[in-house]
Every structure is written in structure tokens, then in C-alpha cells.
Amino acid sequence: MPSPTLQLSPGGRRFVITAAMLGWFGLAVQLYLILWSRWIDHASLLGGLVRFCSFFTVVTNTLVAVALSCAVIDRHSAGARFFRSPVVCAGITTSIVLVSLAYNLLLRHLWTPEGWQWIADELLHDIMPLLFLAYWLFFVPKGLLKPRHVLMWMLYPVVYFGYLLVRGNAFGDYLYPFLDIGTLGVVRALTNALGVLAGFVGIGWIVFAIDKALGRKEHY
């Protein structure tokens, strides 16, 4: 898997550092809000941490924050090279765009967050997707993707959906209402899951097409 060193201009480096800091800040605020809510309800803080780590939004934004951090640190470990890989960055781009689209199309109308929750909500669902998309478009080398990479990226949402269904069956908490088997039934919930997966694949192919188009320009 190719993982060339990113060549960032001073301005580009400042952009990536700012984006990384915003990403970690949004995650920290969301974690605090969940743990504080659990504390107020006298519920298990460990359970709150597990719940926090179970959201697709949180997992994907963590990948975004890690990838942005790895882009500006001068380390050559296997992990840093992995997260600087154009293939991995393109896969994360596909995932974080899905986070934004799914939230805005399926979930935003269900609640009206305020205060710090609104800040975390906007950072994780709107601002970070745009910032990481910009990072991928302007700073990550292009022309290295293959069709098989789109299929490889599918493993992430497939494994996540599997985990979510097992978790929901065990605890009765499916996290996302459009995947709630207890309320919707198996057929409708799985149909919704397949619809989201189809959206992921569609976004993946668009990312692949953009990569090819920009890759040709880079070689001219």
C-alpha cells in the first residue's frame, strides 16, 4: 500500500493542524457530554465510554483526527505510514462523507441540540467532513486508487453494522433509530442498513472517479 510522505506548505500545515485540533476537540466535547449525562443519571461511566466508542460517527471522526495528526507529525512508524496512505485517506474520506450525509438526511430532524451539544454536533457531522474532504482533495496524492480499494473499504461499514446488530440484540440499544430491529423489525432494519451501505459504495466510486481525474492532471 503506497504511503508517500506528504509535502505540506506552511499554509497547508497550518490548515491540517487546525483541522486535527478541531477534530480532537469535537470528540473530547462529545465524550464529556456523554460521561456527564451518565454521571447525572448515576449510570456506569464505563458503559458511557463503551457507548461513546460504539457510534459510527465517533469511530470515523477518530480515524479522521488520527489521519490529520499523522499528516503533520514527523514519524515513520507503521501506524503513521498507514494513516498517510492515499488509499486509507480516500477510504476515510468516503466514510466521513457518509457520516455527514446520513446524519443530515436521516437524523438531524429528530432532535435540536443546544449549547455544547450543538457545537459537538456541528463539528462531528458537518465541519470535520468538510475539512477532511478538503484535506484529501488538496493535499493527498492522487492517481493511486484501484477498483478493488472501494471493495476493501466496504469492510469497515459491514463489520460495524454487524457489531451494531449484535450489540443491539444483546442490550436492546441499536444507537441509530433507522437500524432499530426492535422497533422496525428485521426486514426493514436490514433494508435500511443495505441502503446506507449502498450509499457508502456510491460515495466510494465518486471518490475513486475524482482520484482518477485529479491523478491524470498531476501527471501532466
UniProtKB/TrEMBL annotation:
Highest taxon in the source lineage: Bacteria
- The portions of this protein that span the membrane are 15-37, 49-73, 85-106, 118-138, 150-166, 186-210
Keywords of the record: Membrane, Transmembrane, Transmembrane helix
Name of the protein: Integral membrane protein
Q: Which organism is it from?
A: Pseudomonas graminis
